[in-house]
Amino acid sequence: MIDDSLFTVRDSVVIVAGAGGGLGSEISRALHARKSRLVLFDVDDARLQTIADDCPGAKILNADIRDENALRSVISQAQQKFGRIDGVINAAGLLPIAAALNLEKLIFRECMEVNVTGAFLLSRVAAEAMAETGGRIIHLASVSSKVANANYAAYASSKAALSQLVRVLAREWASLNITVNAIGPAMTATPLTDDYLANPRFRDNAVAVIPMGRLGKPEDLLGAVVLLLATGGAFITGQTIYVDGGRTLV
Questions:
Q1: Integer distance in angstroms from the first to the last C-alpha of the chain?
Q2: Domain boundaries, the chain
Q3: Is 155 an annotated catalytic residue?
Q4: Catalytic entry in 152, 155, 196, 242
Q5: What is the pLDDT of residues 141-159, one digit of tens each?
Q6: 108 membership: H or E segment, kind and range
Q7: Helix H segments across 12-89?
Q8: 9-187+219-242 classified as CATH 3.40.50.720
Q9: Alpha-carbon distance 76 to 85, whole Å?
Q10: Run of H or E residues at 171
Q11: For the chain, what is the mean pLDDT?
Q12: pTM reported for the whole predicted model
């Protein structure tokens, strides 16, 4: 009989940032279904209520990934409720798409603040909490960590920075048995991308550069998430794993 304990996340205590978003909510529901113990946070109360209804028993918090004090409070409340933290998943992010000549400085700055600075702050407070026990940190990066698309100056810069941040933090914290990785999806249909994908030309172009001939789906990421949280992923660190239908091969 095959032992599937390599890929179980049952009873793992996992914090999900951006838990109310299209990717974060799918990940949260999947972990809840697999009996993980969850602390879910977002900045949107309406989205939090929806995910709370879907994940009974989870600790639900309103917090901004850019606010280090708020993040420390999330960590503290997770420890108080569950006694430890096994994993942190960062699914918070912004996706501004605009020609560089028209891109407002404040939008560029906000994108970097959420997608990079927020990722750094969350990683650091998580690592402090995991320093004695080890743990797993997972960020959602993007194919834009690697490929260059026109009109993605802010987003691609932030995701490329995020993938390099993952590499550096993985080096620093490996001796603490803390793994740090990222998952890089291709263009995926979520509320974050719906307005862009409503444009037929944008959608057709997005599909055309994916060799498998379709957009990503949130559930495509679940295998990588479970692997990186579970025992089977214990020796994987510093990686951006592309779940992209071959997009980064083009």
A1: 41
A2: 9-187+219-242
A3: yes
A4: 155
A5: 999 999 999 999 999 999 9
A6: helix 105-112
A7: 22-33, 45-54, 68-82
A8: yes
A9: 10
A10: helix 153-173
A11: 97
A12: 0.97
